[in-house]
Each structure stands twice: as structure tokens, then as C-alpha cells.
Amino acid sequence: AWAQFMCDAVRAAGGTQPVSLGDGAWGIEVTGRDNGFSLRDTAEYVDFVGPHVYRSDTDRPRQHYRAAFECE
Description:
By secondary structure, the chain is mostly helical. 43% of the residues lie in helices and 0% in strands.
């Protein structure tokens, strides 16, 4: 319900840019953990999925390569 409300609000206000909800890519279908988002449930509302990868350590090379690795 929240996802549909947000996407509908952007479009109703005249937004023509693609709409995304952000971190929905790391939902239960991908990670096995339920974060409250479902790619299957939100697919009909969004134009693209934009996964975010956050740093969790201090190793600089690993930080820079981790996002690409996780998205593969």
C-alpha cells in the first residue's frame, strides 16, 4: 500500500521522471530476509529497482568493489 501510494503521488503531482523505491532490491526474494519490500509486489508500481549498498568495513579496496560484486 505504501509503495503504490508513493508512486501514485509522484505521478499525480506531474512527475515524468522514472520512479523507484530505493532499497527494495534487497528483499526476501534476493536475500532470504524480509525487509518489508517485495520485488514481486512492487514491480507493477516502479520503473526501475535501485539497490543501495552500504559500507560495513574499513577496507578501502573491498568497499569500492563490494557494490559491483553484490549487484552481480
